[in-house]
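Input sequence (826 aa), recorded before submission:
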Amino acid sequence: MNACRLPIILLLWIAFAPSVTAQQVNETTILSELEKRGYDPNRVKQELLIRGFDESAFTSADPVVIGNLKKAASDIVKVLDEEKKASAQEVKDSDNIISPKETGNMTPGKGAATGFQDAVSQSEKKENTNSQNKQERTGAEQQEVLTYGQHIFRDKSLVLFRTSADAKAARNYVLGQGDKVSISIWGPTQENFTLEIQKDGYIQPTGLKRFYLAGLTVDQAKELMYAGLRGKYFFEKENFDVSIATARTVNVNIVGEVVQNGTYNISAVNTAFNALVAAGGPNEIGSVRKIQLLRAGSKPKTLDVYRFLQDPISSYEFYLSENDYIHVPVAEKIVTVLGAVNRPFRYELLPNEQLAEVLAFAGGLKPGALKKIIRVKRMEGDSIRILDVDLAALEESKKNFPLFHGDIIEVREMEDMIKNQVLISGGVETPGVYALTTDTRFSDVLGKAKLTQNAVTDFAYLFRKGAVNAKMTDYLQINLRQVIKNPGSDWDVLLQPGDSIAIYVGDQFTDETFIKIEGAVRNPGQFRFSPSLRLKDLLLLAGGVKREAALDRIDVYRLQLEANKTTRVLAARLTLDEKYDVAGSMGEYHLQPFDQVFVRSAPEFELQRNISVLGEVKYPGTYALLNENMRMDALIRESGGATDEAFLRGATLARGMDNIGYVIIDLEAALANPGSHENIILQDGDVITIPKISNIVTITGATKSQELYPEKITSQNKIQVSYRKGKHARYYIDQFAGGLSKDASVGRIAVIDASGKVTKVRNYLLFRKYPEVGPGAEIRVGYKEKKLKNDGGKEKKEIKWGEILSNAITQATAVLSLILLIQNVK
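Predicted structure, token format:
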């Protein structure tokens, strides 16, 4: 949808509004169509309401209102289209501007910690390069640097309630002019009525005095109404309630460092926190700690997002009144926390808040955090200063460390390497890490880990950091047998921190080999070689031979390996008995590494292959192929022959093999002359269907039948007439279809007989030969190709105006549906 289409359709809708009702529109269809075009329906409704257009604006006859409505709709579409382009572009930013993408959207608990730390590290490494790149970018390309607390206005943690139906007013909601109050009484007396608070702040139930509710909370209004209604109605307090049926709307002015300044018309059930969502929340330099709620005749109130995140109930202190102002000042003290904290982020601090407070905002330290040295990077004048802070000492003395705007706090983690450990692996029962003391020897660790039975005792290896170059590894061979025999000897060396012991097992010095079996066995594949493995064992491991296996043809191919000689392949052909014993070997035919065994199938072994004949034969059903060259006539004889009702020329052959599908046949000719090419050789899965005799001929296409016959006959765009023996296609067209229409193409007349065979008109110099028509055939009359010429004399295809008009109407209807949807928003 382009940017100008919505306002144009909007004006069309206003013009036709009296004749179009919301009930004519399916809401599911509207939402689906809107989403298909890439627009968020809720977002469109939200933007229109933000600009002050409720449902009354759509029925207004005031040209000023109509003009404003058109401009608002155009602005919304432009904003949405720009957002689409920005989203598709996905500008990658690797400099010191930390984008939401780099920080995992900077949302606590969603991987923000690592992403933020990595981004700031990149910023420090590329400071000079990024300074130049930053100057080259436009403001639109720059991505925001979020401060903790700003995310709740971006990621839908908070929502803006458009109507009172979206959210129930809290009990401490302050009532005012325009609120509709619902009063319910149940029990012995039942009464329900809803009254709107008037300009002077009261409601007046019928026959009763006025109750002044403006300025009261819902709970206070309930107490007042309970006392006032007890004299007229009989009820207990638990059978009485006062609630808000419809909350008033108020105009709120949001100014300062927000994404979009302006005046917003919103439901009074919103607090100032919810209202900020309409303006996009504080921008990248806006404060989240000192937001001011200004109201005429009242002291300013300060909104602190951090306090709200710790205690969301505090937001109820900030309900809105008509013409309130919300002012977001510039944040004055921003610091960044990196490293081993639970929530690395940028934080805004109040003047009296220092290191202890920002660490608390960051979720506290991780278990591995180093308290002794916390690094603070600070800008002082034209230089950067690094400060080391001992947090443990500060906590012990109950002191704090002052922070300044722009400080970067980095909390380091303890090193993962454990100094007093040694590792043992390989042929031991309990490999792993063991504790190391100053007098721990090789035999001490060996005694704890315990050698396995297949461990090699001739030698072991000790890997140790190089004495000269720590990046190198020294390989020390140990006589393991001597260590076991003589603990404390020279072989039983003292171990050092970081040493690694490797005990080897016999399998590590033996090549693994396999035997392969293929062919007519149930589970072919590879099996691990063993000197005890016999051919009989291999056949049993493979699930035994299949029914079609030829036991007198077992081929074994063996690789002959000799030192310093070329390998050769030897072949043996064996015969087995029913017990899988090799003839003359007493079942002791042993295999060798890399042997390949192939069990051959018996010659020409094959299970039955089936074919079917359906319809007009004496014994329809499934039959087996009796030989490789069984033909159609043999199948018909097997099925008892065709019945008297059989229409042999209409028979069809469906072939499933190789997905061939239907094959055109002439069964009548095949049966009349079995030696002809019409008598097709059958294959597994073939199905022959023989229908009953049909004496109907069908005529379709470009004829004048529509002019001759009533609609009930031509409703299916075809006519059906009785068969006339020996007549050709043109006879039927002229006699029964009124002849050819002006759009008919004589060269495209074709006859499709009952078997599917197609015969077309043939031209012989000065005359045409029309195809003959058989029983059950269809005569198709094709249309001429229509071409148009443009001004240059070149031919071009016909423009299908019907389809173009249909598509245009569909698009216009979809956009009209959007406007009707917005009209229904309350």
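Checked by second reader. The chain has a mean pLDDT of 78.
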